[in-house]
Write a structure and sequence with these properties.
Blueprint (H helix, E strand, L loop, with lengths): L1 E6 L6 H12 L2 E4 H10 L3 H10 L7 H13 L6 E5 L5 H13 L6 E6 L2 H15 L7 H15 L1 H7 L4 E5 L4 H16 L1
Parallel strand pairs: 1-3, 1-4, 2-3, 4-5
Helix pairs in contact: 1-9, 2-3, 4-5, 6-7
The structure holds adenosine monophosphate (AMP).
Length: about 190
Amino acid sequence: MLNIVLFGPPGAGKGTQSQKLVDTFNLVHLSTGDIFRFNIKNETDLGKLAKSFIDKGNLVPDEVTINMLEAEVEKHPEAKGYIFDGFPRTTAQAQALDKFLESKGTSISMMLALMVDEEELTKRLLLRGKDSGRADDIDENIIRNRINVYNEQTAVAAEYYANQNKYHGIDGVGSIDEIFNRLKSIIVEQSH
Ligand code: AMP
Protein backbone atom coordinates (compact mmCIF):
# COMPACT_ATOMS: atom_id res chain seq x y z
CA MET A 1 0.00 0.00 0.00
CA LEU A 2 1.00 3.58 -0.60
CA ASN A 3 0.11 5.55 2.52
CA ILE A 4 1.10 9.21 2.40
CA VAL A 5 0.96 11.81 5.15
CA LEU A 6 0.59 15.14 3.36
CA PHE A 7 1.83 17.64 5.89
CA GLY A 8 2.25 21.39 6.20
CA PRO A 9 0.82 24.49 7.83
CA PRO A 10 -2.69 25.77 7.07
CA GLY A 11 -2.73 27.25 3.57
CA ALA A 12 0.25 25.19 2.37
CA GLY A 13 -1.83 23.61 -0.41
CA LYS A 14 -2.51 20.17 1.09
CA GLY A 15 -6.10 20.01 -0.18
CA THR A 16 -5.23 21.14 -3.71
CA GLN A 17 -2.32 18.73 -4.02
CA SER A 18 -4.31 15.86 -2.47
CA GLN A 19 -6.83 16.08 -5.30
CA LYS A 20 -4.09 15.69 -7.88
CA LEU A 21 -2.35 12.89 -5.99
CA VAL A 22 -5.62 10.96 -5.61
CA ASP A 23 -6.18 11.08 -9.38
CA THR A 24 -2.62 10.05 -10.26
CA PHE A 25 -1.99 7.34 -7.68
CA ASN A 26 -5.54 6.06 -7.14
CA LEU A 27 -5.59 6.69 -3.40
CA VAL A 28 -8.35 7.40 -0.90
CA HIS A 29 -8.19 10.98 0.36
CA LEU A 30 -8.90 11.44 4.07
CA SER A 31 -8.97 15.07 5.19
CA THR A 32 -9.88 15.42 8.86
CA GLY A 33 -10.74 19.09 8.24
CA ASP A 34 -13.20 18.11 5.47
CA ILE A 35 -14.74 15.39 7.64
CA PHE A 36 -15.20 17.85 10.52
CA ARG A 37 -16.78 20.42 8.16
CA PHE A 38 -19.15 17.74 6.81
CA ASN A 39 -20.22 16.94 10.37
CA ILE A 40 -20.66 20.63 11.20
CA LYS A 41 -22.84 21.14 8.14
CA ASN A 42 -24.99 18.16 9.09
CA GLU A 43 -25.15 19.27 12.73
CA THR A 44 -24.03 15.93 14.13
CA ASP A 45 -22.87 15.63 17.75
CA LEU A 46 -19.30 15.33 16.47
CA GLY A 47 -19.83 18.47 14.38
CA LYS A 48 -21.14 20.45 17.33
CA LEU A 49 -18.19 19.44 19.46
CA ALA A 50 -15.63 20.10 16.72
CA LYS A 51 -17.09 23.49 15.81
CA SER A 52 -16.24 25.00 19.19
CA PHE A 53 -12.54 24.25 18.58
CA ILE A 54 -12.39 24.91 14.84
CA ASP A 55 -14.03 28.33 15.04
CA LYS A 56 -11.24 29.50 17.33
CA GLY A 57 -8.52 27.93 15.21
CA ASN A 58 -7.65 25.37 17.91
CA LEU A 59 -7.15 21.65 17.48
CA VAL A 60 -10.01 19.25 18.13
CA PRO A 61 -8.94 16.91 21.00
CA ASP A 62 -6.80 13.94 19.97
CA GLU A 63 -9.13 11.21 21.15
CA VAL A 64 -12.09 12.55 19.14
CA THR A 65 -9.97 13.08 16.03
CA ILE A 66 -8.23 9.71 16.19
CA ASN A 67 -11.50 7.80 16.64
CA MET A 68 -13.03 9.65 13.73
CA LEU A 69 -10.05 9.01 11.45
CA GLU A 70 -9.95 5.30 12.27
CA ALA A 71 -13.66 4.99 11.51
CA GLU A 72 -13.06 6.65 8.12
CA VAL A 73 -10.24 4.25 7.24
CA GLU A 74 -12.54 1.33 8.12
CA LYS A 75 -15.03 2.60 5.52
CA HIS A 76 -12.55 1.94 2.67
CA PRO A 77 -11.29 -1.63 3.06
CA GLU A 78 -10.66 -1.86 -0.70
CA ALA A 79 -8.24 1.11 -0.75
CA LYS A 80 -4.87 0.75 -2.48
CA GLY A 81 -3.57 3.41 -0.13
CA TYR A 82 -4.50 6.62 1.61
CA ILE A 83 -3.55 10.26 1.62
CA PHE A 84 -3.81 11.58 5.15
CA ASP A 85 -4.39 15.31 4.75
CA GLY A 86 -4.36 17.36 7.94
CA PHE A 87 -3.74 14.27 10.07
CA PRO A 88 -1.70 13.62 12.18
CA ARG A 89 -1.40 17.07 13.74
CA THR A 90 0.19 15.98 17.04
CA THR A 91 2.75 13.35 18.01
CA ALA A 92 0.02 11.45 19.88
CA GLN A 93 -1.99 11.27 16.64
CA ALA A 94 1.07 10.05 14.73
CA GLN A 95 1.67 7.32 17.31
CA ALA A 96 -1.98 6.27 17.24
CA LEU A 97 -1.94 6.15 13.43
CA ASP A 98 1.14 3.90 13.40
CA LYS A 99 -0.45 1.55 15.90
CA PHE A 100 -3.71 1.46 13.97
CA LEU A 101 -2.07 0.84 10.58
CA GLU A 102 0.10 -1.87 12.11
CA SER A 103 -3.05 -3.63 13.29
CA LYS A 104 -4.18 -3.56 9.63
CA GLY A 105 -0.85 -5.00 8.46
CA THR A 106 0.29 -1.80 6.80
CA SER A 107 2.22 1.40 7.62
CA ILE A 108 2.96 4.97 6.56
CA SER A 109 5.12 4.98 3.45
CA MET A 110 6.27 8.61 3.68
CA MET A 111 5.51 12.08 4.96
CA LEU A 112 5.54 14.81 2.32
CA ALA A 113 5.79 18.20 4.02
CA LEU A 114 4.91 21.34 2.05
CA MET A 115 6.99 24.29 3.22
CA VAL A 116 5.59 27.81 2.83
CA ASP A 117 6.57 30.95 4.76
CA GLU A 118 4.11 32.63 7.14
CA GLU A 119 3.51 35.78 5.11
CA GLU A 120 2.57 33.74 2.06
CA LEU A 121 0.30 31.48 4.18
CA THR A 122 -1.62 34.40 5.66
CA LYS A 123 -2.04 35.93 2.22
CA ARG A 124 -3.33 32.65 0.74
CA LEU A 125 -5.75 31.98 3.61
CA LEU A 126 -7.27 35.47 3.52
CA LEU A 127 -7.73 35.09 -0.23
CA ARG A 128 -9.32 31.65 0.21
CA GLY A 129 -11.63 33.08 2.88
CA LYS A 130 -13.21 35.36 0.30
CA ASP A 131 -14.95 32.43 -1.41
CA SER A 132 -14.40 29.28 0.68
CA GLY A 133 -17.10 30.26 3.17
CA ARG A 134 -14.78 28.99 5.91
CA ALA A 135 -15.17 31.10 9.06
CA ASP A 136 -11.63 30.19 10.12
CA ASP A 137 -10.22 31.71 6.89
CA ILE A 138 -11.82 35.14 7.26
CA ASP A 139 -10.49 36.54 10.54
CA GLU A 140 -6.79 37.33 10.51
CA ASN A 141 -6.49 36.68 14.28
CA ILE A 142 -7.87 33.16 13.86
CA ILE A 143 -5.52 32.56 10.93
CA ARG A 144 -2.56 33.69 13.06
CA ASN A 145 -3.73 31.37 15.84
CA ARG A 146 -3.92 28.43 13.42
CA ILE A 147 -0.37 29.12 12.31
CA ASN A 148 0.77 29.39 15.96
CA VAL A 149 -0.98 26.12 16.81
CA TYR A 150 0.83 24.55 13.86
CA ASN A 151 4.20 25.84 15.08
CA GLU A 152 3.61 24.88 18.71
CA GLN A 153 1.74 21.56 18.48
CA THR A 154 1.91 20.20 14.95
CA ALA A 155 5.39 20.92 13.58
CA VAL A 156 6.88 18.36 16.04
CA ALA A 157 5.00 15.56 14.27
CA ALA A 158 7.48 16.01 11.40
CA GLU A 159 10.29 14.91 13.73
CA TYR A 160 8.38 11.76 14.50
CA TYR A 161 8.57 10.80 10.81
CA ALA A 162 12.10 12.14 10.38
CA ASN A 163 13.16 9.69 13.10
CA GLN A 164 11.74 6.90 10.94
CA ASN A 165 13.50 8.27 7.83
CA LYS A 166 10.13 9.00 6.26
CA TYR A 167 10.24 12.80 6.17
CA HIS A 168 10.54 14.70 2.85
CA GLY A 169 10.38 18.50 2.83
CA ILE A 170 9.09 20.09 -0.39
CA ASP A 171 9.15 23.73 -1.46
CA GLY A 172 5.44 24.65 -1.40
CA VAL A 173 5.82 27.90 -3.34
CA GLY A 174 5.28 27.88 -7.10
CA SER A 175 2.52 26.90 -9.50
CA ILE A 176 0.17 24.04 -8.60
CA ASP A 177 1.76 21.88 -11.30
CA GLU A 178 5.32 22.69 -10.27
CA ILE A 179 4.58 21.68 -6.69
CA PHE A 180 2.73 18.58 -7.84
CA ASN A 181 5.72 17.50 -9.94
CA ARG A 182 8.00 17.88 -6.91
CA LEU A 183 5.68 15.65 -4.88
CA LYS A 184 5.32 13.14 -7.68
CA SER A 185 9.06 12.70 -8.17
CA ILE A 186 9.57 11.94 -4.50
CA ILE A 187 6.75 9.39 -4.49
CA VAL A 188 8.08 7.68 -7.61
CA GLU A 189 11.65 7.71 -6.30
CA GLN A 190 10.58 6.32 -2.90
CA SER A 191 8.34 3.63 -4.37
CA HIS A 192 11.17 1.91 -6.25
P1 AMP B 1 -7.94 21.93 7.89
O1 AMP B 1 -9.08 21.85 6.93
O2 AMP B 1 -6.99 20.78 7.79
O3 AMP B 1 -7.24 23.27 7.84
O4 AMP B 1 -8.58 21.83 9.36
C1 AMP B 1 -9.49 22.79 9.84
C2 AMP B 1 -9.60 22.70 11.35
O5 AMP B 1 -10.09 21.41 11.73
C3 AMP B 1 -8.29 22.85 12.12
O6 AMP B 1 -7.96 24.21 12.33
C4 AMP B 1 -8.62 22.12 13.41
O7 AMP B 1 -9.43 22.93 14.25
C5 AMP B 1 -9.48 20.97 12.92
N1 AMP B 1 -8.64 19.78 12.61
C6 AMP B 1 -8.41 19.25 11.37
N2 AMP B 1 -7.60 18.18 11.46
C7 AMP B 1 -7.29 18.03 12.77
C8 AMP B 1 -6.47 17.13 13.49
N3 AMP B 1 -5.78 16.15 12.88
N4 AMP B 1 -6.41 17.28 14.84
C9 AMP B 1 -7.10 18.24 15.48
N5 AMP B 1 -7.86 19.15 14.85
C10 AMP B 1 -7.97 19.05 13.50
